[in-house]
């Protein structure tokens, strides 16, 4: 399966509410994930914990989607533009936009970094 097909399948799973299943299927046990300017999360379990904590902060989902999605089949690097509009538990509503860059080792993501912005949605 091409890297383009892998990243498409992963984001299709996320769009269907299968984020944790996508994490299990596509992340290497030793994956390193950097989210914005935060400290790296080392390992799939650290990423799982961070995702669960993030879901715990969300009160309501209003929509999500992807834009450009690319893959360099020779180097095993993919990039995805995505967005999610949510209301947090505190009532603030935001549209989060991000670009994720994934480095693959075989069938698994070994390194991922997110670049993002969270513009104010006019609470």
Tell me briefly what this model is.
The chain has three helices and six strands, in the order H-H-E-E-H-E-E-E-E.
Ordered list of secondary-structure elements with their pairings:
Layout: H1 3-15, H2 19-26, E1 27-35, E2 41-42, H3 44-57, E3 58-72, E4 77-88, E5 93-105, E6 108-117
Parallel strand pairs: 1-6
Antiparallel strand pairs: 1-2, 3-4, 4-5, 5-6
What is the straight-line distance between the termini? 43 Å
Low-pLDDT residue intervals, each spanning 5 or more residues: none
CATH architecture: Roll
Strand content: over 45%
Largest sheet, order of strands side by side?
2-1-6-5-4-3
Number of helices: 3
- Helix content range: 25-40%
The overall pLDDT average reads 93
Helix-strand topology string: HHEEHEEEE
Q: What is the highest CATH level, the class?
A: Alpha Beta
CATH topology (fold) name: Nuclear Transport Factor 2, Chain: A
Oligomeric state of shown chains:
single chain
Query: Largest sheet, described in full?
Result: 6 strands, mixed
Overall strand count: 6
**Could you say which structural class the secondary elements and strand pairing correspond to?**
alpha+beta
Inertia-based shape = globular
| Rg over alpha carbons | 14 Å
How many separate domains make up the residues?
1
């Amino acid at each position: 399966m091409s890297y383009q097909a892998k990243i498409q399948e992963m984001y299709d799973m996320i769009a269907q509410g299968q984020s944790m299943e996508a994490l299990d299927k596509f992340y290497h046990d030793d994956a390193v994930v950097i989210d914005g300017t935060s400290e790296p999360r080392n390992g799939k379990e650290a990423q799982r914990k961070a995702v669960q904590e993030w879901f715990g902060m969300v009160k309501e989902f209003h929509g999500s989607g992807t834009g450009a999605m690319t893959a360099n089949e020779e180097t095993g690097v993919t990039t995805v533009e995505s967005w999610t509009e949510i209301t947090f538990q505190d009532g603030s509503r935001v549209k989060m936009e991000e670009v994720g860059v994934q480095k693959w080792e075989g069938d698994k993501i070994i390194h991922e970094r997110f670049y993002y912005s969270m513009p104010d949605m006019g609470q």
